[in-house]
Amino acid sequence: MQSGNAIRFLLGDQPQTLSNPPPTMTVLEYLRKTEHMTGTKEGCAEGDCGACTVVLGNAENGKMRYRAVNSCIMFVPFLHGQQLITVEHLKNPDGELHAVQQAMVEEHGSQCGFCTPGFIMSMFAMYHNQCPTDRQSIDNALAGNLCRCTGYAPIVRACRKALKSTTKDQFDRKENKTVRSISALDARTTVEINSNGQKYYAPRTTSDLARILESHPESRIVAGATDVGLWVTKQRHYLETVIYTGAVESLTAIDIDDGYIRIGAAVTISDAMAVLAEHYDSLDELFIRYGSDQIRNLATLGGNVANGSPIGDSLPALVALDARLLINSAQQTRTVAAEDFFIDYGKQDLAPGEFLERIDVPLPQERQEFRIFKISKRFHQDISAVCGAFSVTIHGNRVQTARVCYGGMATTPLRARNCEKALIGNSLTAEDVKQAREALDMDFTPITDFRGSSSYRSAVAAGLLERFADELRSGEKIGVRQVQHA
Ligand SMILES: Cc1cc2nc3c(=O)[nH]c(=O)nc-3n(C[C@H](O)[C@H](O)[C@H](O)COP(=O)(O)OP(=O)(O)OC[C@H]3O[C@@H](n4cnc5c(N)ncnc54)[C@H](O)[C@@H]3O)c2cc1C
Ligand code: FES
Ligand code: FES
User: Which of 286, 397, 464, 473 has its C-alpha lying 20 to 30 A from 220's C-alpha?
Assistant: First the structure.
């Protein structure tokens, strides 16, 4: 195994090499304290406000791909082999503002200015990803940026104006050169950092990952760090040894074969969502409400599963769809059904030395109907109070098989087995659904917390079952709340 203790990346278009950087130093800290680039701001330090938004550039098939991310919870070594773009890099060398900056000026999109660099960077990523200019698409893409002064109308106007611009920017003009500069970084080595005793490993193969994990049982696996990053920035945890999964090729791959969509554990939510929603369109609605663009571009499907939160949004879907998890270690490889993986609150079926390699989601069957509904206090950027996933097959007009799973109703995501039994064989008439609701009552005794009382959760769970039956009966998909704006 070829390894090195330096990370190499482009800062704007300048190659940078950092030898043994502190493994859990955030990109925001690095920018502000090491580079003295203070355009990128710190608001919340937990991925919520977007003031710290930067853009990562990756070379994929000879083209650059740009993604907005939160620099406040991203660790510096993750930059290896990528381009880091901040608000300081957007202006042309002749001083001319970028189209997104110019539009913000013209539309008065900035007041105190604290949030502005973050909005600019999100808009820059939207500009390069040809984001549609309708209000809903703009709202979805800007949901991870908060402004407390200006009001959103001028910001949205500026965004729409910039997105309509057809001129190529300096990043388009330099694309080939940037691709070459990234490849010259020669970043395909295993990174092994030791910074004052704090260690970081970024293996490239599953066997190296298994071996490193076996020899460092005290280590913490990190993928997108959208959970782990907060342990560092908010809870001040010291992580002695970090093993990063984002460089392991098989963990970042997506394949479709033998009836399954096979998603590597380190595939981001954004990339997983694209393929999963192609086959289960209800998931598109769920994932648009999962964190923000910045979070979805870092967070991984494997991280969501391994974290095992009872309100992790992908989990009810994976259980209802009967997904399989491939677990690997230096000793053995095994497969476990998603529903068996979640043992109790904070307890998953993962022994020391084991890691989650892949999530296999069955392709839809004929006559299968799948819906998932998330209920949270805010539409965007909020964790579920209750999430219900329903997967049934219908023969004639009767339910032949049923898998129903709720998040937020128990200490783990849990199947509603009494409800499933009541659904099987019936045809979802109002009377049938009433019986299934009564059965559902026997499935859960939900907790009361700040997201909802026990009785609220029970009422919501029953409401989601009704909604599922209504959609199937009417043949219509009620779908996400589409807010209409001028
Ligand atoms: C602002 C914000 C909004 C959020 N919104 C949502 C939301 O709407 N819905 C939602 O469900 N979640 C949400 N989250 C939580 C978080 O984004 C998810 O749980 C995410 O999927 C975690 O993935 P990650 O790659 O960032 O995990 P990490 O933080 O890297 O890791 C999480 C845990 O999984 C373990 N782990 C990671 N990969 C593996 C592996 N391959 N094998 C074994 N263990 C592994 C880590 O050791 C750690 O214990 C939000 C978080 C933030 C900060
Ligand atoms: S500082 Fe608020 S999202 Fe990063
Ligand atoms: S302009 Fe002040 S926070 Fe947005």
Answer: 286
